[in-house]
TrEMBL record:
One of its GO terms (biological process) is isoprenoid biosynthetic process. InterPro entries: Isoprenoid_synthase_dom_sf (IPR008949), Polyprenyl_synt (IPR000092), Polyprenyl_synt_CS (IPR033749). SUPFAM superfamilies: Terpenoid synthases. Its cofactor is Mg(2+). Transmembrane segments: none annotated. CDD domains: Trans_IPPS_HT. Pfam families: polyprenyl_synt. Gene3D superfamilies: Farnesyl Diphosphate Synthase (1.10.600.10). Keywords: Magnesium, Metal-binding, Transferase. Belongs to the FPP/GGPP synthase family. This is Polyprenyl synthetase. GO terms for molecular function: metal ion binding; prenyltransferase activity.
């Protein structure tokens, strides 16, 4: 049995203990939900679950339930559904991004190839759908809308910016669909199945949406500034694969405005060049991590976290609201 620890330090010991126990329950059922009788399929389907992770989405579901009447079997099922959905999306994301590592382990497509990785992701999406069906038609609808947004986010990222659209706003839209939608659903389902009133459910969904954008903007910084041995990801993968991130978009906007320095123009030219060579990639990462666009990205992430916290104004004061506030800020301030 894998012991879990909270990715969120809590001042309230009673709440921390309850969440740890509840998350342990989800973790145990996650092993069962990702298992398969076929040995080869089982190895692939459990690959990322066994690699660990912060379990932020089920944690948010469980925490949101404490705004209502607390965790029950339906809340636990919802927490399992959102983590299965997240894991499924990672199999697909790593194929799309050609990411060699995920959570410190070789990505599934590196081990079994793209087709197996994609089909394994599909299998986990199917498992999540089967489980959410037990929660009723409204939960199925919420899950379907979330799945649609996940796909749209990936499509919009892949297709790129249309002529006349603002690249930064396009990117925020991608983050809202591809990352924030599932965090919004995580909070919504926790509150819903714990019996919170409709207004609280919607406030927590908006909270999760803003937290999700803040989380991904922070990830853009971490991809450039943190040690890959700590994050479990290859540093600069997005740069190498020409995947747009906020620091690069802000740099590009500065250059296109005509007010950039020669150093800025040279850096953008390097980023737009062939970064298949490790030395070229390392040079681009080193220069970009020292650039002011990192701080500008951090400010944007903090602004979304602050907006998430403002969505909690209708919640009563207490350890649960404080934990949700801390959750938003910790996701921005983390280094891995």
């Amino acid at each position: 049995m894998t012991n879990v620890s909270l990715a969120l330090p809590l001042a309230d010991e009673k709440l921390a203990t309850a969440l740890t126990e509840e998350l342990q329950h989800v973790e145990e059922h996650l092993r069962s939900a990702t298992s398969h009788a076929d040995t080869v399929v089982n190895e692939a389907s459990q690959h990322l679950a066994n690699a660990g992770g912060k379990r932020l989405r089920p944690l948010l579901t469980l925490l949101a339930a404490h705004v209502g009447q607390g965790v029950n079997d339906d809340v636990r099922q919802a927490a399992l559904v959102v983590e299965l959905t997240h894991l499924a999306s990672l199999y697909h994301d790593d194929v799309m991004d050609s990411a060699p590592l995920r959570r410190g382990a070789p990505s599934a497509h590196e081990v079994w190839g793209n087709s197996v990785a994609i089909l394994t992701g599909d299998l986990l999406f199917a498992r999540a759908s089967r489980l959410v069906a037990n929660l009723g038609p409204e939960a199925v609808h919420i899950q379907a809308v979330t799945f649609e947004r996940l796909c749209l986010g990936q499509l919009h990222e892949t297709m790129g910016v249309r002529d006349g659209d603002d690249p930064v706003e396009h990117y925020i839209g991608v983050l809202a669909d591809k990352t924030a939608s599932l965090l919004a659903t995580s909070a919504l389902l926790g509150a819903k199945f714990a019996g919170a009133d409709h207004g609280i459910q919607q406030a927590l969904a908006r909270y999760g949406e803003n937290v999700g954008v803040a989380f991904q903007l922070a990830d853009d910084i971490i991809d450039l500034t943190s040690d890959g041995d700590v994050t479990g990801k290859t540093q600069g993968t997005d740069l190498r694969e020409q995947v747009p991130t906020m620091p690069v978009l802000l740099l590009r906007a500065q250059v296109l405005s005509g007010h950039a320095s020669q150093d800025d123009r040279d850096l953008l030219a390097l980023i737009d060049s062939d970064l298949s060579d490790d030395a070229a990639l390392a040079a681009a990462v080193e220069q970009l991590r020292a650039h002011r666009v990192i701080e500008l990205t951090r400010q944007r992430a903090s602004a979304y976290a602050d907006q998430a916290v403002r969505e909690l104004d209708s919640l009563p004061e207490g350890p649960v609201r404080q934990a949700l506030q801390d959750f938003a800020h910790i996701l921005v301030e983390r280094t891995a």
